[in-house]
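[Q] Does anyone have a clean structure-token version of this?
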Amino acid sequence: MAKKSSVERNKKRIRMAKRDSAKRAQLKETVRDRTLSPEERFQAVISLADLPRNGAANRVRNRCEVTGRSRGYYRKLKMSRISLRDLASKGQIPGMTKSSW
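[A] Here you go.
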């Protein structure tokens, strides 16, 4: 089980990224627009830098929904390999069985 503070910090980052995504996208588009004057583009760069860092989508860490573990994460299932194995062994994931050969 991950530290509660790490899980909560990541949830906060998810909320902030969702909240700031439109503004960030608009500012990035302004920065890339070559038809604008250099002053306008530079002002957009400064505005982008003034936004909180945790509002960036790449600051969000993929974490297991069950345990909060950050490593061994399956994106499709939103859980770690360990949680997946435990739930599969208990028969709580439909269609998944323990492999044997």
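[Q] Thanks! Anything notable?
[A] The chain has three helices and two strands.
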